[in-house]
Amino acid sequence: MKELPPYLELYRREMQRGRPHHAYLVGSGSALAVEFALYFLRGLNCLGPVQGCLPCGDCYCCKHDYMVSRQIEPEDGHISIDQIRDLAEFLDSTSVDGQFRCKGVIIEQAEKMTSTDAVNRTQENALLKTLEEPPVGSVLFLLSDVPSFFLPTIRSRTAFLPFYNVEMEEYRRHLGDLQFSQNEIQLLSKIADTSCTERRDLEFIVQCVAVARGLLKGSLEAEQVQFYLKNADQWERMLRVFHVYFRDALIFLQTGKHDRVYKIVPCNPYRVIEILQDIGRVRRILSTTHSNPRFQMLSLLSKHRCQTV
């Protein structure tokens, strides 16, 4: 018996709609999210689905699904206007075989098409044309860990799918096997992407959270500043942790919920909002330009007057 994929419940729910959306914004940029999109497309085209909607894996369409799917990845750190035009041309073209019901395009790290320039957002505007008038029999998957980066007009024309890689209990057991403390396990369960399983990468997240706490308080220990600057070239991983931490911190502060894991210090929620906006700004700049990561990361510390203690 074939092992069922971990995203099966999400897949079943969407297939039971009867008529899938023409575009999905998948809240994950992981390799498993790519696998999910390919599985979804295979299910739409399968000639002999099993258990109602699962792709059989044996029919002509399942074995030749590569003929009707395309994957787009960032080139030189961003997704170009030419790549967006190519995907539109692929979706508009006649199907390679009449047995297939639809064609699909998967855009990995889709946030790399966004721009810091509020006026010149060429890639998103080009994609918007495809979303507004989708070709018949086409499905588009935007994969991103930061769906909030997209224009509201993009988000409103896509169906959002939250994505979870594995069962959380299984992940927590793995963290326990790596000898993390109970508090660290609770913290990593909230912040880490469950595809992150190496101890070195997990320790990096724990240290990033310590820096985020200092950033919220407005003071960092010398070791935290050293870690922050030493890892400026890993800005994408670090800022992703910051985004999750401050997003949840804002929720705690606004709802008054008690928190024993994040250790949120009492502060003005507007300060957290400002930090979140600056994190987004730095991520956009570094994602779409050749700006110096160390300079941009330093600007984040300087703006919020972080003192070394």
Automatic annotation (TrEMBL):
EC number: 2.7.7.7
Segments crossing the lipid bilayer: none
Pfam families: DNA_pol3_delta2
Lineage top rank: taxon: Bacteria
GO MF assignments: DNA-directed DNA polymerase activity
Top enzyme class: transferase
Coiled coil: none
InterPro entries in the record: P-loop_NTPase
Record keywords, A-Z: Nucleotidyltransferase, Transferase
Name of protein: DNA polymerase-3 subunit delta
Source organism of the structure: Desulfurispira natronophila
